[in-house]
Specification:
4-stranded parallel β-sheet; about 250 residues; 9 helices; mainly alpha
Length: about 250
């Protein structure tokens, strides 16, 4: 039971927070409208007019900011007005029950009644008027995404990225380094081991010359790029145990 409650709260918490802001804005508009109309109309007429204005504003804000639309605008508009009236009766009923029958202080009874009406309004909007699918992601998903972004931001950067980018932008320079390494090493039998292969800038040149090459590269992004090029890739030297390489067959990139 508690797990189910936690899942519901996790899923709808952000929608509830946004609707709380929408309801607060609507209340301010209702009070302002009543204050402006009270001087020229009777209190009862001013209250009704203020209610209609605030409910219309609440509809627009709810539809655009707090909930996903589920029906036509006209259907949702009618439902919102009708169910807002029901929520008002819930508000009034809770106040009457607590004040008139239980004898609780009128201010406390009014606060509880307002909370009951607010809860009814939210339930009607989230599960009846608009789509039941929340407009916003679950709290846990937002927190997990934030944690992933922080971990990515705080992770130490791989300095070799800039060097590899420079190699890609300066192919003649990369060719010169490769040619020097090939000239300095004697021909060997079996595969070359490109230690620190990066994104394969030198492995490509070995393969171009018909030399079999295997790669050691700890960076996950570069490992994926090397495997896309159909190369054998090891993430660390421990994985090389039992794989013989001839003397001089190691290329340190």
């Amino acid at each position: 039971m508690w797990k189910s409650i936690h899942q519901v709260l996790d899923r709808y918490a952000l929608s509830l927070v946004v609707y709380f802001i929408v309801a607060g804005a609507s209340a301010l508009i209702e009070w302002t409208t009543f204050f402006l109309l009270y001087a020229s109309l009777s209190p009862f007429t001013a209250a009704i007019a203020a209610f209609f204005v605030a409910t219309a504003v609440n509809f627009v804000l709810s539809r655009r900011l707090a909930f996903k639309s589920n029906r036509s605008g006209g259907q949702e508009f009618v439902l919102l007005f009708v169910l807002s009236a029901v929520a008002f009766l819930v508000n009034l009923g809770a106040f009457t029950l607590l004040f008139a029958l239980v004898g609780i202080h009128p201010m406390i009874a009014k606060i509880v009644g307002t909370c009951a009406g607010f809860a009814a309004n939210y339930v009607f909007r989230q599960f009846v008027i608009f789509s039941r699918e929340p407009r916003f992601a679950a709290i846990s998903a937002v927190l997990n995404k934030r944690s992933a972004l922080l971990n990515k931001r705080d992770a130490p950067s791989y300095a070799g990225h800039r060097i590899l980018e420079a190699m890609r932008w300066a192919p003649h320079y990369a060719d010169a380094i490769y040619a020097y390494a090939r000239f300095a090493s004697a021909p060997v039998e079996g595969p070359m081991l490109d230690f620190g292969a990066g994104d394969g800038v030198f492995a490509e040149r070995f393969l171009r010359d018909g030399v079999e090459v295997e790669c050691v590269e700890p960076d996950c992004t570069h490992q994926a790029a090397l495997r896309d090029g159909k190369r054998t890739v090891f993430s660390n030297v421990r994985q090389l145990y039992g794989r013989p390489f001839a003397s001089g067959a190691v290329f340190l990139a």
